[in-house]
Amino acid sequence: MRIILITSGTKGGTGKTTLAVNMAVVLAYELRNKAQYPVVLLDLGLDSGTATMLLLGDVRAEIPYTLADYLMGRIPDPLSTLYVKTWQVGDETFRLVFTASISQYPGQVRIDRYLLRGLLNAIAAVSPFYVIIDPPALGLSYDVLTTLLEVSNNVVLVAVPDHSSVRAISNVVNLMRELKVENRLLRPILNMLNIKYPVDASTGLPWTKLVRDVVNIEPHVVPYDELFPIVRQALEIESLKLSFYESPALDSIFKYVDYLMEAVPPEGQK
Ligand SMILES: Nc1ncnc2c1ncn2[C@@H]1O[C@H](COP(=O)(O)OP(=O)(O)O)[C@@H](O)[C@H]1O
Ligand SMILES: [Mg+2]
After folding, report:
1. 270 Cα–ligand 2 center, Å
2. What pTM does this model have?
């Protein structure tokens, strides 16, 4: 099972949740014939529950247990925090497993490394090819980031065209070096969410170059997309009767998923 951490370091609001949810849905779709539950989305944005709400829609009341209950020690079995969403496309179905992560205890839930390992062991029982980790919504502490690096194998850095964002991913790269972790850095993503201009006005350099200089890998650009704040989720685009290709950001996420499946191929299930 490949565990992929999406992170922007301490910078918030860079589109991580949007990218994580869409990547997870697209991956689950692409691998629908290879496993019953090919992908698990681990939503650690406990205080906001954004990913969970995107996936569940409005049926909060129907969730008996959330990941917060598990991390607070109120339930012993992390499997009871996993939910499945099923999509029907034509006469085919595919499924995404995700943690229901809405916190009833805002600001109180700690991400404990032993409990997190317990959760990942439980997820391994589902035999997914990929686990996508959407990190906490608010500024990530180095402590939590270190824990997340420890439990994952691959890292996707997400930056927006903003100097503080480039600095934040540079700090992650430095931390990884300092800790001598073995996580593989995948192609970083430059998410153009707040700007349509590819060149930084203060240095005259393209943002792609500024990101590449930090990570040493050419970034993958996800363009600004006015559909994203409205729909956010891959399959919603379909339900609005738009094709994937009418959404430039989603089209770009499909391309990133193709890259991902080649760079870290789905391993045979054990
Ligand atoms: N490429 C994009 N184009 C336009 N809007 C985007 C794009 N990516 C993300 N957004 C919007 O930016 C906002 C913040 O995204 P979110 O995924 O919640 O960020 P984070 O998880 O990093 O805090 C959301 O309203 C989302 O729809
Ligand atoms: Mg988020």
Report:
1. 31
2. 0.94
Contact between 128 and 159 (Cβ < 8 Å): no
The residues whose Cβ lies within 5 A of ligand 2, an ion, are: 16-17, 45, 137
Q: Residue 148 and residue 47: Cα distance in Å, rounded? A: 17
pLDDT digits (tens, 9 = 90+) for 68-98: 999 999 999 999 999 999 988 878 899 999 9
State which ligand 1 atom lies nearest to the alpha carbon of 232: 27
pLDDT beyond 70 at 59: no
Contact residues of ligand 1, CB 6 A cut-off: 12-18, 50, 137, 191-193, 222, 224-225, 228-229, 232, 249
Helix ranges (DSSP H) in the chain? 16-30, 50-56, 67-71, 113-124, 142-151, 163-179, 207-215, 234-239, 248-263
- Tokens linked to 62: 């129907």
Q: How far is the CA of 75 from the centre of ligand 1 (A)?
A: 32
Which atom of ligand 1 lies at the shortest distance from residue 50's CA? Answer: 18
Q: Any bridge partners for residue 89, and if so which?
A: 92
Homologous superfamily assigned to 2-260: P-loop containing nucleotide triphosphate hydrolases (3.40.50.300)
DSSP string, 11-24: ---SSHHHHHHHHH
Give the residue whose CA is nearest to atom 9 of ligand 1. 15
Domain residue ranges in the chain:
2-260
